[in-house]
Backbone:
């Protein structure tokens, strides 16, 4: 698939997520976990055959992981969690958007820093940085949600009456620990 199509697809998904979260939406365990895992899977696929691990490439990749997850965790911490209809909901705030903007600036800084130190384009997949950021947000938001004691939403059941009790059982077991 063309990198431009992947970039456009990812951008569309991010805009949709931001708009939905500003309106306030239910927190669903699958919605927290699946997007970052898909993006990180795509990034691993892109990096799989790479075998030119210079100090610059390793440094850039390590910095990307730390910065991506950190900004995601900050975003997750800035999200308002609340109960509506007996389930956990989340809503982005102005602070969340400021953190999004700062993370984009940090991404640009990483990009130019990578060029400066000679990190290769192959170790800079966009899916990696976005996936890491969404993972950080999921960790923080999901952790706060578990601590709240408010049940996560189950959108599959709401959409089509299917049973996602395995996911709910896993969330309950984590809460009990």
Residues:
């Amino acid at each position: 698939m063309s990198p431009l199509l992947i970039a456009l697809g990812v951008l569309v998904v991010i805009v949709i997520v931001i708009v939905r979260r500003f309106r306030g939406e239910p927190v669903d365990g699958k919605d927290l976990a699946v997007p970052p895992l898909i993006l990180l899977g795509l990034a691993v696929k892109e990096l799989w055959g790479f075998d030119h691990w210079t100090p610059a490439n390793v440094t850039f990749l390590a910095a990307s992981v730390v910065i991506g997850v950190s900004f995601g965790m900050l975003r997750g911490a800035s999200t308002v969690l609340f109960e509506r209809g007996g389930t956990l909901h989340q809503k982005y705030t102005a602070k969340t958007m400021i953190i999004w903007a700062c993370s984009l600036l940090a991404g640009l800084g990483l990009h130019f820093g990578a060029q400066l130190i000679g990190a290769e384009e192959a170790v800079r997949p966009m899916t990696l940085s976005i996936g890491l950021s969404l993972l950080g947000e999921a960790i923080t938001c999901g952790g706060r949600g578990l601590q709240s004691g408010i049940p996560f939403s189950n959108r599959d059941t709401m959409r089509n009456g299917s049973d996602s009790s395995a996911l709910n059982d896993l969330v309950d077991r984590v809460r009990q620990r």
Remarks:
- The CA atoms of residues 51 and 122 lie 10 Å apart.
- The radius of gyration is 18 Å.
- Helices lie at 3-23, 29-47, 55-78, 94-117, 126-148, 155-160, 165-176.
- The longest strand covers residues 80-84.
